[in-house]
Specification:
Helix content: 40-55%
Number of domains: 6
CATH topology of the largest domain: Rossmann fold
Distance between the termini: 88 Å
CATH superfamily of the largest domain: P-loop containing nucleotide triphosphate hydrolases
Structural class: alpha/beta
Radius of gyration: 37 Å
Shape: elongated
Oligomer: single chain
CATH class of the largest domain: Alpha Beta
Bound molecules: adenosine-5'-triphosphate
Number of helices: 31
Length: 888
């Protein structure tokens, strides 16, 4: 406010504004005035600048005008979103009832503070709006995450910043609140803000006080001990959860009734996927464009409801490690696939189902309008039918869903009876409540409609009763309705007539009945609107009372939607149910990359086998020219394992998946919030992280380790990494290692658990044809120059490169490499769980081949139906089998 204006000279409204502003100095104040939100002084200047709105002036005192900006009430959410996305906090100020207030005065108070993590404007239905709270201590980091639009609320604890980074990437929060210790712990906060547009706020230390945090949680969940809500084992997580709840109470100013449960989870309950693996495998968005299209979620998500979409996303982000839970999900998918008619019927019923979780938050915030209620009713209408179809399934998971699914028919009936079919959006204009639902409303409506008729009837009745032939009911603005009796009939006026006015030749009267009618007719409109509003609020509150039942039903529907979607996709894309084992064997026959196969026209994707175990087939070194398909092959293996552990069918002819505890990928350069070093440094950091954190039950995808530095350094590092993976701690970590260092294929003979594979190409003169088929053995050439030619590098350069490569080829080096002795400490085969001999022989794809097998396969080839590329593949495979056999 300009200094020359004194507060005393401001209008009462402006004084109120300035008072409120003092308390909410860090917020832009949106002040509700009728159908507009207005901002004044500095706030108006910021809003006008940031949102490119016209700045005007408003009278604010004696001859003074305050800079002013305004946005219409109905469009406020968009403006709010734009402001909070730019990092501003907005306090919404609205009129509140205050009986103590003198007549004519209006009181406005802050009813909600909107921040990026508490914005109710839904921007992407299938994505959560997470707010994350971090309670940092030197030994443990407490993390709590909540979504005000759905009521989801979690907490966990991690040991270090790397794991915090992984959780951050999993939830992608819009806002972080933290204690001050976090600001100085070394985490790269600037990057969070600049690159990921996450706003970070440090809250006052008292918010993180353990005792207050515990108290607020106990109060909110109405329990006496933390055990009552299952979070007693997470002391630092509890602090984060309590501080988060306090922040929500302070900003949202509602009872947060939709936060019914808090879900503590151990990160070890899920497969550990670090942030770079999540990105590299393109689970929910593509690496470069950050689009859903082209990600695994894009292929799998055929969900019908927003709740289902969100659940599927979180399932992919958190694959399971517990075999039983995976089997349960797979059972549900299989059961639905076994009865595709019922499944498709369920999907039809799911189609109109509204986002019940987000509806509940609207109910809690009292922003749900009559149209939301009608959408809600339409959703509930589907529930009995869904329950009936579900009864035809007997598996544990689907029956469980059926049990949790409350058909909520009481709420359906309430809305059906009370709310008009096509109601207005606004709850202040009336026209929402159905005829017949409430007597007073019906009466007021007919008063509005039939008032004239009632007056005519009363006039007629009284004319007969009094015998006054010219008795008339008339109206004027001062006296309202009255009977007019001319002087000649004065002595016939009955006793119950009350005189209102005397004129020269007539008298005007009223009666109790006429007064009643007058009140009803004249106030009908206002009363009706007020009554409808009250009634609607009551109906909304009674929906709010059922929050627990509705939330349980919403969760059940989300699960059902996910299973139905996975079942449909399995059928359409010819996926199979994976077998799961805890013996560490990954045996995939004719596996395909779920996303690449969708991108390639027709059936052109070439399927490949994978066999890995904890002993002889632990490490696969994969060579092959650029563009051959190495990365695709490795990622497809990781994705198939991940899909199986999500409870999803997989793109393969058959798959037996040994459950892994973690998947690590090292593919290309990627960002790491916690580091911030050069590309090679990032690469080495990731390698260090993998070697430190992988266990013998992990799956490692290592693509061209060491390529970021000089050839010899890179080769040596790659070599040493493979040796390390073979040592005692990691022995058994199944590893796919793609490399252009052909020298690494020397390791096959030197280490018992290393096997060479390559992706076949065919030389045709100077050119190469990619066969995309993985075969046993190392590639004998790199074909880099041929690929460069294919890419259109000028002939002159290609020819010169050929000359140089001739001169560089140095037999000496190859000899030296052959002479390196491996340094693998403690290489002892890990004690294997007994593997059924029969099973192993079926699984061991690359085990010794007999001549007869090759002949048999040749006989089985249907030459007439084979595409040329497939024929080449078959030929190549058979030839290689023989070569390997004769070499062996
Ligand atoms: N099995 C397959 N069937 C059909 N097409 C494939 C297959 N595998 C890969 N491709 C195609 O080949 C392209 C290159 O594959 P990919 O990136 O995996 O090669 P790469 O060997 O890792 O190459 P580089 O060494 O240069 O990184 C893919 O984008 C895909 O279109």
């Amino acid at each position: 406010m300009p200094e020359q204006i004194s507060v005393e000279s401001l209008t009462p409204m402006m004084q109120q504004y300035m008072e409120t502003k003092k308390q909410y100095a860090d917020c832009i104040l949106f002040y509700r005035l009728g159908d507009f939100y207005e901002m004044f002084f500095e706030d108006a200047q910021i809003v006008s600048r940031e949102l490119e709105l016209t700045l005007t002036g408003k009278a604010c005192g004696l001859e003074e005008r305050a800079p002013m900006c305004g946005v219409p009430y109905h469009a406020v959410e968009n403006y709010l979103t734009r402001l909070v996305n730019k990092g501003y906090k907005v306090a919404i100020c609205e009129q509140v009832e205050d009986p103590k207030l003198a007549k004519g005065l209006v009181k406005r108070e802050v009813v909600r503070i909107v921040t990026p993590g508490t914005n109710l404007n839904i921007q992407e239905e299938s994505k959560n709006h997470f707010l994350m709270c971090i309670a940092y201590t030197v030994t443990k980091i407490g993390i709590s995450v909540a979504d005000v639009t759905t009521g989801d609320y979690f907490l966990t604890e991690v040991e270090d910043l790397k794991k915090l980074n992984d959780e951050l990437m999993k939830y992608e929060p819009l806002e972080i609140i933290c204690n001050e210790a976090f600001l100085v712990c070394g985490f790269r906060l600037e990057e969070l803000k600049e690159k990921y547009h996450i706003s970070v706020n440090a809250l006052a230390p008292h918010v993180f006080d353990d005792d207050s945090c515990r108290k607020i949680l106990l109060r909110h969940f109405r329990v006496n001990t933390l055990k009552g809500i299952g979070i007693e084992d997470f002391p630092v997580g509890m602090t984060a959860a309590g501080a988060l709840l306090q922040y929500l109470y302070d900003t949202q100013k509602t009872d947060l009734a939709h936060f019914i449960h808090i879900n503590p989870y151990l990160t070890s309950k899920y497969m550990l996927l670090d942030s770079s693996t999540r990105r590299n495998l393109e689970l929910t968005e593509t690496l470069r464009e950050k689009h859903k299209t082209g990600s695994l979620l894009w292929v799998l998500d055929k969900t019908k409801t927003a709740m289902g979409g969100r659940l599927l996303r979180s399932m992919l982000e958190q694959p399971l490690v517990d075999k039983e839970e995976m089997e349960q999900r797979l059972d549900a998918v299989e059961e639905l696939s076994g009865d595709s008619v019922s499944r498709d019927e369920i999907r039809e019923y799911l189609n109109p189902i509204y986002d019940l979780e987000r509806l509940l938050s609207k109910v809690t915030y009292k922003t749900a309008n009559p149209r939301d209620c009608i959408s809600f009713r339409n959703s509930l209408e589907m529930l009995p039918a869904i329950k009936t179809v579900l009864k035809s399934f007997s598996g544990q998971e689907l029956s469980g869903i059926e049990n949790h699914l409350d058909d909520l028919q009481d709420i359906y009936q309430l809305i059906q009876n009370a709310i008009e079919e096509d109601p207005p959006v606004s709850i202040r204009e009336g026209g929402m409540i159905k005829d017949g639902f409430d007597e007073t409303i019906d009466m007021l409506r007919s008063a509005k409609r039939d008032g004239k008729q009632w007056l005519a009837e009363l006039e007629e009745q009284d004319r007969e009763r009094t015998g006054i032939k010219n008795l008339r009911i008339k109206y004027n603005k001062v006296f309202g309705y009255y009977f007019e009796v001319t002087n000649s009939y004065k002595n016939q006026v009955p006793e119950d007539y009350i005189r209102k006015q005397t004129l020269a030749n007539a008298e005007r009267y009223t009666t109790v009945r006429l007064k009643e009618l007058e009140d009803t007719i004249l106030n009908a409109e206002d009363k009706l609107t007020a009554l409808e509003y009250d009634l609607f609020c009551k109906i909304r509150d009674s929906i709010g009372m059922e929050v627990e039942r509705i939330q349980a039903t919403a969760k059940a529907l989300a699960k059902l939607d996910v299973y139905a979607s996975l079942s449909l996709i399995s059928e359409r894309n010819h996926y199979v149910r994976p077998k799961l084992n805890e013996k560490g064997i990954i045996d995939i026959r004719d596996g395909r990359h779920p996303v690449v196969e969708q991108m390639i026209a027709g059936d052109m994707f070439i399927a490949n086998d994978t066999f890995l175990d904890n002993s002889k087939h632990c490490i696969s070194i994969i060579t092959g020219p650029n563009m051959a398909g190495k990365s695709t092959y490795m990622r497809q293996t990781a994705l198939i394992v991940l899909m199986a552990q999500t409870g999803c069918f997989v793109p393969a002819k058959s798959a037996n998946i040994g459950i892994v505890d973690r998947i690590f990928t090292r593919v290309g350069a990627s960002d790491d919030l916690a580091s911030g070093q050069s590309t090679f440094m990032v690469e080495m950091n990731e390698v260090a992280n993998i070697l430190r954190n992988a266990t013998s039950d992990s799956l490692l995808i290592l693509d061209e380790i060491g390529r970021g530095t000089s050839t010899f350094d890179g080769l040596s590092i790659a070599w040493a990494v493979i040796e390390h993976i073979s040592n005692r701690k990691l022995l058994g970590a199944k590893t796919l290692f793609a490399t252009h260092y052909h020298e690494l294929t020397e390791l096959e003979g030197k280490m018992h658990n290393v096997n060479n594979y390559c992706i076949a190409v065919k030389e045709r003169g100077d050119d190469i044809v990619f066969l995309r088929k993985i075969i046993k053995g190392g590639a004998d050439k790199s074909y880099g120059i041929q690929v460069a030619k294919l890419a259109g590098v000028p002939d002159m350069v290609i020819d010169r490169a050929k000359e140089i490569v001739e001169q560089l080829t140095d037999n000496d080096i190859i000899e030296k490499i052959q002479n390196i002795t491996v340094d693998v400490k403690d290489v002892k085969a890990k004690k294997q769980p007994p593997v059924d001999e029969m099973e192993l022989s079926q699984m061991s794809l690359f085990d010794t081949v007999k001549d007869e097998d090759v002949l048999q396969e040749l006989m089985d080839v249907e030459v007439n139906t084979l595409a040329p590329i497939d024929a080449l593949n078959v030929l190549y495979r058979l030839q290689n089998k023989l070569k390997n056999r004769w070499k062996g």
